[in-house]
Amino acid sequence: MRKSFAVLFFAAAVAVAGLGSAAGAASEIAINGSTTVLPFAQSTAEAFMKLRPDVRISVSGGGSGNGAKSLIDGMVQIASMSRAMKDSEINDAKKKGIDPVRHTVAVDCIVPIVHPSNPVNNLTVSQIRDIYAGSITNWKDVGGPDKRIAVVGRDTSSGTYEVWEEKVMKGTPVTPRALIVASSGALVQTVAGNPLSIGYDSLGYVDPKLVKALGIDGVKGTPDTARDGTIATSRLLYMYTNGAPAGDVKAYLDFLTSDDGQRYVAREGFVTLK
């Protein structure tokens, strides 16, 4: 599994250079949004450009909310999102003459992650909620060492945050003690660097050399539990276009959802559609 954490953490946008295309001659596609989708958006864009050197694709990841805003403002052809677009975003889009069309490109689940040295292997949804709310503050209360829990979360522009809020927190406020980070890669690096921390991230970002994924209510995050919804935090990953895609945008999306494109999704550690 390829993990370009340094790139994801230190760069707000990952530019993918066109291959073999003459200056000014290439068709250009801009993709912006979810840092969860970013790894396989980048790798499929690179693969597509090898097949189509007349197309240049730039990929950036500033969060699902920023992706939606970029599409609404006409700045990109594709918004990548790890949650569905909100009604308010769709209404804002329509006011500007934008017609968001959703395309499902992969499957995912969000898993709690801890340092590999942590003896805890499973938490209930209730325990996770209490940890993030600040009601449980010591690892010994959930089977770990007698040490204070360091809570790490995502910012509100993140689609991962939105899904975690919906499926786990259910409206319960997160403790103000939580450390908030801006990307999926940054969250993994933060948890990997603190033996007492807990975070949550996409299954595709879990590198067992750096962090340990916990089960939720006795269910581990796997491709199967993500696809069938057995794990409470399963979700779909999307790309949005303005209206039905056409031309090179459609060609890229067709490639991404094809068997060949889905192989890149799997190589990045994410869950394929089939």
What does this structure look like?
- It is a single chain.
- This protein is of the alpha/beta class and 274 residues long.
- It has helices at 5-10, 38-51, 64-72, 87-95, 125-133, 159-169, 184-192, 223-228, 247-257, 259-267, and strands spanning 13-14, 27-33, 55-61, 78-81, 100-114, 122-123, 150-154, 179-181, 197-202, 212-213, 215-216, 234-242.
- The protein contains 10 helices and 12 strands.
- Strands 1, 2, 3, 4, 5, 7, 8, 9, 10 and 12 form a 10-stranded mixed beta sheet that branches.
- The model is unreliable at 1-23 (pLDDT under 50).
The run of helices and strands is: HEEHEHEHEEHEHEHEEEHEHH
Tally the beta strands: 12
**For the record, what CATH class of the largest domain applies?**
Alpha Beta
Shape: globular
CATH architecture of the largest domain, please?
3-Layer(aba) Sandwich
| Beta content | 15-25%
Whole-Å distance between the termini? 19 Å
Mean pLDDT: 92
Uncertain segments are 1-23
Residues in helices, as a percent range: 25-40%
Work out the radius of gyration.
19 Å
Domains, number: 2
Helix-and-strand structural type: alpha/beta
Helix count equals: 10
CATH topology descriptor of the largest domain: D-Maltodextrin-Binding Protein, domain 2
Q: Could you name the CATH homologous superfamily of the largest domain? A: Periplasmic binding protein-like II
**Largest beta sheet, briefly?**
10 strands, mixed
